[in-house]
């Protein structure tokens, strides 16, 4: 009689505690978890045979019950400016995107948190694609694991990812548990050892989750503000109908309270004739008064179904000058990886939208 093969446990997304529990079930000492964690995440190993501080017999046994499996690379593109984008295929056939952005003093990996997104922001390519599902912890940390491995090859073994931003596809705070599990691995000294200042979560503003994030994993916070009054923000970021600007900004204030070094980054996409006037800039200054803040102005990246236009450079400069005169640190984000569609909001992957049509329409009116 032939027995159906038993699914192997994927160790990639397991927390240190879950890995300890796994070894105890295997009749092994819990300290094996630390060793294996380092092999997987520090050394990027996916083959038990390479784990030379484990006995031969244990290595062979592990290979029969466990595996270290990341998403598959479906496409690997490098832009003229060095930005690199991977299209990753998940076990169920869905695709997500991960982008690496090299700069002189850092290397930033932009990680996805969901297949698609439920929020349907008016200017975002991912939102237009619909939503399929949340990513699992192994699929989130797998993006960092894979990118580290692929880039280390290029850099002769040097670690070149110094920062991670949860700014790819999806709304990370609507996949809270899995995102936090993955971020804890990013911060763990036995795994990636990134400081919490070098891991940034970007949210459209799921207010109740900000309190939990602060309590459970207080990484750097970026908030996609994009508008200075509720009427406009309701249109651009429909989630605002549920959590309006005043509530969101209160939650931001609380997030950085008691930590003098911390600031919230406010992302503000520059849409020609929509939110980019000097009056808007002044309104923004007033809104952010008293909040330790910096502002990232993001030139809108057009995509085929998009109905907006990028503000011209003059409008962006004028807007920036108003903020800077009010002593708000303001950076205009450079558009990176244009030639490979790797820029903000361009990450579309290939999403099999499972949302029924009726729900998709409802979503446009009232978000989750
Ligand atoms: N859901 C999260 C993270 C994903 S979006 C959030 O809303 O923050 C990451 C950033 O890209 C956000 O600031 C988002 O507003 C911005 N973005 C989305 N579409 C864009 C586009 N077409 N051009 C420029 N920035 C865009």
How is this structure best described in words?
The structure is a single chain. This protein is 35% helix and 18% strand. The chain is α/β, with parallel strands linked by helices and 368 residues long. The strands form three sheets. A ten-stranded mixed beta sheet has the order 3-4-5-6-9-10-11-12-13-14. The protein has a two-stranded parallel sheet with strand order 1-2. Strands 7-8 form a two-stranded antiparallel sheet. Strand 4 (84-89) and strand 5 (95-102) form a beta hairpin. It is elongated, with a radius of gyration of 21 Å. The model is unreliable at 364-368 (pLDDT under 50). Bound molecules: S-adenosyl-L-homocysteine. The site of S-adenosyl-L-homocysteine (SAH) has 17 residues, from strand 10 and strand 12.
Q: What is the overall pLDDT average?
A: 91
Radius of gyration: 21 Å
Ligands and ions found: S-adenosyl-L-homocysteine
Main sheet strand line-up: 3-4-5-6-9-10-11-12-13-14
Structural class: alpha/beta
Largest sheet: 10 strands, mixed
Residue runs with pLDDT of under 50 for 5 or more positions: 364-368
Number of helices: 12
Overall morphology: elongated
Helix content: 25-40%
* Series of H and E elements: EHHHEEEEEEHEHEHEHEHHEHEHEH
Secondary structure: number of strands: 14
Throw out a few tags for this protein:
368 residues, alpha/beta, 10-stranded mixed β-sheet, two-stranded parallel ribbon, 14 strands, 18% strand, disordered C terminus, binds S-adenosyl-L-homocysteine
Topology of helices and strands:
Blueprint: E1 9-10, H1 16-25, H2 32-42, H3 56-65, E2 66-67, E3 72-78, E4 84-89, E5 95-102, E6 107-110, E7 114-116, H4 125-129, E8 131-134, H5 137-154, E9 163-166, H6 176-187, E10 199-203, H7 207-216, E11 220-224, H8 230-236, H9 245-256, E12 264-270, H10 278-287, E13 293-299, H11 313-325, E14 329-332, H12 357-365
Parallel strand pairs: 1-2, 6-9, 9-10, 10-11, 11-12, 12-13, 13-14
Antiparallel strand pairs: 3-4, 4-5, 5-6, 7-8
Helix pairs in contact: 1-2, 5-6, 7-9, 10-11
S-adenosyl-L-homocysteine is lined by residues 123-125, 167, 171, 202-204, 224, 267, 269, 298, 300-301, 303, 344-345.
